[in-house]
Structures are given as structure tokens and as C-alpha cells.
Design goal:
The protein is of the alpha+beta class. The protein contains two helices and three strands. The protein has one domain. It is about 35% helix and about 35% strand. The chain has a three-stranded antiparallel β-sheet with strand order 1-2-3.
């Protein structure tokens, strides 16, 4: 998979393109397709904070 993320004002744009043969064999409709997700930067920061908390020791970590 190839992925890029960039900021567009207060939003983030994330692109994904699948290229692994194993994935494309089971999902041939994904060949050459670029998937795009757009979300508020603050929402993405919240998702990252939750992920750190879940994967960490439960005490969380400050996001700077």
C-alpha cells in the first residue's frame, strides 16, 4: 500500500493505493484506484490520542 497525508487548511487529506499482489488478487477492483479520506485535523489528533492510550499503559501520552 502507498499512503500520503497532507494538511489542507483545518482538514487532513489521506490517500491510499493498494499495490500488493496478494491484496489485488482478492480485490482486483482496487487496481489503480486511489482512495481518499478527508477529516478535520483535530479529529485525527483525537484518534491518535485514543490509539496511544489503548496501546500504551492506560495513562496516555501527551500529544504535542
Amino acid at each position: 500500500m502507498t499512503s500520503f497525508l497532507w494538511r489542507d487548511g483545518v482538514r487532513l487529506v489521506i490517500t491510499l493505493e493498494f499495490w500488493r499482489e496478494g491484496h489485488l488478487l482478492t480485490h482486483p477492483e482496487h487496481a489503480g484506484t486511489v482512495f481518499v479520506a478527508k477529516l478535520p485535523a483535530a479529529e485525527f489528533a483525537g484518534i491518535l490520542e485514543e490509539t496511544v492510550t489503548i496501546l500504551g499503559d492506560g495513562e496516555g501520552a501527551p500529544v504535542t
